[in-house]
Structure formats: structure tokens, C-alpha cells
Write a structure and sequence with these properties.
It is a single chain. The chain is an alpha/beta fold. The protein contains eleven helices and ten strands. A seven-stranded mixed beta sheet has the order 6-2-1-7-8-10-9. Strands 3-5-4 form a three-stranded antiparallel beta sheet. Helix 2 packs antiparallel against helix 4.
């Protein structure tokens, strides 16, 4: 069988195409990772060269192959209660600030993006139930979104490895999970507390309906974007938030370096970013 190789020119073409479609830019240092997965998809689609595969990728009307490639190329590395200090900030500072201003008692809406396999959204749900004293007085909607459809199905199934749950408090583990041959599975109540949706942040049609959020968790995603894509994401989140709503980024990310749309809020537990204005 003919050995498939990815030339420097092929890599550059793919790099530009994938960036345009997703906002994710693969550096040359990721070349081995990219080449390996491209060859995997070329063989799976029974093409015999990058050229034939790339033509199919660009012009396939269904977009199914692009989605399959996105699922393969995106990185989904996370675990429960990662950067937990922001969950403390949510419960102890952000939500009290929000509810003091939220006169219409409408549901509190939280958007988690990227969802990955659901650990972050489910961690938030557990924190609200266990640690927020006002949980019974408010309806809370948690929407968790990702560009990767395969990982969203894993999130909905809610089955996790021992590594994923290693930071889950023991009493939470006993209360919310059951051990199965496949791993630790979340109970139905917690799984039903989160809605998982497929979204490409770089597609205006995808994000148009995402509005009226009070809090957005977007942690460790923008580090994969270049400056132009980060700015576009910041504007998307601005449109998605209520005035006075908050956005939480990863510990190594700073909205101040991306956009001047937000003001910095320094809470005892964490620094977060807020859309100016107050909710009517």
C-alpha cells in the first residue's frame, strides 16, 4: 500500500484551512500530532493522498468529514474540580453579586465552553447544590458547549476514569457517582442538570442564539487561538452576556490583553471579568 505523507506545503494549506474554520491554529511544533491524525483520516476515507482528501474536506456539502476531523484534532484534557478556586468564587462572590441585582428572578444562566467531556459543568452543578445556600430559591440553567460532537456524547453519558474523579471530594463521589465496569458514572439527577450543545465559536450562525447568560466559564480555550480569534471570541461572549454578567478564564489567560470591552473584578477568591452595565 502506498505510504501517505504530508508535505510542508500540505501542512500549511491545512493549517490555514483549519484555522479559518475553527479559530484553532496549530503551530509547527504540533506537526507530528497533526500529520498523524490527517493520515488517519485520509486512510479512513479511502483517499490515497492529501490532495484528494483535502478536496473532499473543503467541498463536502454535509460537512461530516470536517466534523470527524475536528473531533480528532481537538484536545480534551480536563478533570473534575480543576482550578477549583473559581468555583469557590462563583458560589461565594459572583452569585451573591448577581442575585442582589437580579430583580426579575429569571433563571440564572451559566455557559461552559469548551465543554470537553463535561467535568467542568458537572463540577459547577455539584458546587451549586452542595455549597450555595440560595440554590432552592433560584432556577439555574447550565449549558455546556463544544465543537467536538464525540466528546459531547461522552459528556452526556457521564462515565469517568479514576484519574478524572481524583479531585472529587469523597462524600461527593459516594453521593453522585456509582462505580461501573466502565468507570465512575454520574447519577441521573446531576446528568439532567446540564444541557450539552455543539457550538463553533468562530461561526456566527452557531453562536447567534446564545444570549442572556449571567456567567460564562471559558477556561483554557483562548490559549489555542491567535489574537484575531481571541478578539472575536471576546466579542461573542460580550453579546452572549447580560449587562453585569461575568466571564471566568483560565489561570494563565487574561481578558485585559484581548479586549477592552470588560472591566476587571477582583474578588477574594479570583480575578474575573465583567460586562459593564447593570441588568434592568
Amino acid at each position: 500500500m502506498r505510504k501517505i505523507t504530508i508535505s510542508d506545503d500540505d501542512f500549511l494549506k491545512f493549517q490555514e484551512f483549519f484555522y479559518r474554520k475553527t479559530g484553532i491554529q496549530f503551530e509547527t511544533s504540533k506537526r507530528y500530532f497533526v500529520d498523524k491524525r490527517l493520515v488517519e483520516r485520509i486512510e479512513a476515507t479511502e483517499n490515497d493522498s492529501f490532495r484528494g482528501y483535502f478536496t473532499m474536506l473543503r467541498f463536502q456539502s454535509s460537512g461530516n468529514e470536517l466534523q470527524a476531523l475536528v473531533n480528532l484534532m481537538t484536545i480534551n484534557e480536563t478533570y473534575f474540580f480543576r482550578e477549583e478556586y473559581q468555583f469557590h468564587c462563583l458560589v461565594n462572590s459572583i452569585l451573591p453579586d448577581l442575585v442582589a441585582r437580579k430583580k426579575d428572578k429569571s433563571p440564572i444562566r451559566i455557559w461552559v465552553i469548551p465543554s470537553s467531556s463535561g467535568e467542568e459543568a458537572y463540577s459547577i452543578a455539584m458546587c451549586l447544590v452542595e455549597r450555595w445556600p440560595d440554590i432552592n430559591d433560584w432556577d439555574v440553567e447550565i449549558i455546556s458547549s463544544d465543537i467536538d460532537t464525540k466528546i459531547l456524547n461522552q459528556a452526556r453519558a457521564g462515565v469517568y476514569s479514576e484519574r478524572s474523579v481524583k479531585h472529587v471530594p469523597r462524600n461527593y463521589l459516594q453521593k453522585y457517582f456509582r462505580e461501573t465496569p466502565a468507570g465512575f458514572q454520574l447519577n441521573d439527577d446531576l446528568r439532567s442538570a446540564v444541557e450539552f450543545t455543539r457550538v463553533n465559536l468562530m461561526e456566527a450562525a452557531d453562536v447567534r442564539s446564545y444570549r442572556n447568560f449571567d456567567v460564562i466559564f471559558c477556561r483554557n480555550l483562548l490559549i489555542y487561538f491567535d489574537d484575531i480569534s481571541r478578539k472575536q471570541a471576546a466579542e461573542t461572549f460580550y453579546d452572549a452576556l447580560h449587562p453585569g454578567g461575568f466571564i471566568c478564564l483560565g489561570h494563565s489567560e487574561s481578558m485585559s490583553r484581548i479586549s477592552s470591552l470588560y472591566k476587571i473584578r477582583k474578588f477574594p477568591e479570583a480575578i474575573v471579568y465583567q460586562k459593564p452595565g447593570d441588568r434592568k
